[in-house]
Amino acid sequence: MTSPGSAGPPGAFRVGLQIGAMSRDILDHRDLLPFAARIERLGFDSLWIGEHMLWNAGFLDPLVTAAAVVGATSRLRLGTSALILPLHHPVRLAKAVATIDLLSGGGRLILGVGVGGENPREFEAMGVPVSGRGARADEILGLLRRLWAEDSVSHESPYYPLKDVTLLPRPATPGGPPVWIAGRSAAALRRAARRGDGWIPYLVSPRQLAVGLDTIRAEALLSGRDLSGFEPAVQLFICVDTAVRAIERLTVFLEGLYRQPMRRLIEDRCVVGPPERCAERIAEYITAGARSLIIQVPGWGPRELAHIRIIADTVLPAITTVVPRPQPADGGSIGGGA
């Protein structure tokens, strides 16, 4: 393992933190910016913000939050995991992302996107049909790249028709920041292989992660795409405690967040237990191919700083003793270093 945020050889990895949703009783958000500065000092590579317009818990706007955190930190990368792409107009989204990329000086923003659909009410509230959200997402992805790079963009479409659109100023990052694709479905894997700069699944086992990356390689080969520089990531729910207490704490958190039974998934798709067991479990994901780890503790991030410090002090350093150095796959690499 290299330290979070530093580059390294194959087998190196980055560790970021997802701040998660807020319960209804958390009304004061002023601790977020000092928290982001602390996370940076602890050596984490990135801070990630999810998105839901409507949910049974509160979500800050990810782009507004990223813009605020940029000003409170100097190195920390900011990511969206995941922004619900069909709920955004491509021109407005391209403008907002370009602005944050400029404010950060370039290289600090990662646009993680998905198609959503878990809560049809938020699509209804935004005036966007749930059906066709995948087609909308694909169209937006293509337009974002064009808007960030071309002098004049015209596009015929029933969704987002454009005529002679010029977006200025351009992002500081040539061609715009990296776009990572979230999701576990076959469509998400195809989208990652053909259009993404990375893949962010969540609630997957190490085996599911490895199979998904194999599928992305195969899809990229079919489409003639070179995956050099592609970043395989994984979002991991983690709780460091005794095995029994960790499973119970994470069950309560996830069932409160998703409003469905979750206990049966935790041992297979999460990281739970004492520090040494958590380190071994994270190493399984790295062996499966992950190069960016996005961890989320149960609870609203700034209220869980003690838990996060335990992970930084006891879990992450221990991974160096258990993680092997995987070799690049034949036929082109995915990742190949942080």
Provide a compact summary of the structure.
The protein is of the alpha/beta class.
Amount of helix: 40-55%
CATH class group of the largest domain: Alpha Beta
Element pattern in H and E: EHEHEHEHHEEEHEHEHHEHEH
* Beta strand count: 11
For the biggest sheet, the summary is: 8 strands, parallel, barrel
Q: How large is the count of helical segments?
A: 11
Measured on Cα atoms, how large is the radius of gyration?
Answer: 19 Å
Give the termini distance in whole angstroms. 10 Å
Structure description:
- By secondary structure, the chain is α/β, with parallel strands linked by helices.
- It has two domains: 1-27 and 228-338, no CATH class; 31-36 and 44-182, TIM Barrel, CATH 3.20.20.30.
- It is 40% helix and 16% strand.
- The protein contains eleven helices and eleven strands.
- It has helices spanning 32-41, 62-72, 90-104, 120-126, 133-149, 186-195, 206-223, 243-258, 263-269, 275-288, 305-315; strands at residues 14-18, 46-49, 77-84, 109-114, 153-155, 162-165, 179-182, 198-200, 231-240, 271-273, 292-296.
- Strands 1-2-3-4-7-8-9-11 form an eight-stranded parallel β-barrel, surrounded by seven helices. The chain has a two-stranded antiparallel ribbon with strand order 5-6.
- Strand 3 (77-84), helix 3 and strand 4 (109-114) form a beta-alpha-beta unit.
- Helix 2 packs parallel to helix 3 (90-104), helix 3 (90-104) packs across helix 5 and helix 7 runs parallel beside helix 10 (275-288).
- The longest helix has 18 residues, at 206-223.
- It is globular, with a radius of gyration of 19 Å.
- The protein starts with 13 loop residues before the first strand and ends in a 23-residue tail after the last helix.
- Mean pLDDT is 89; it is low at 1-10 and 324-333.
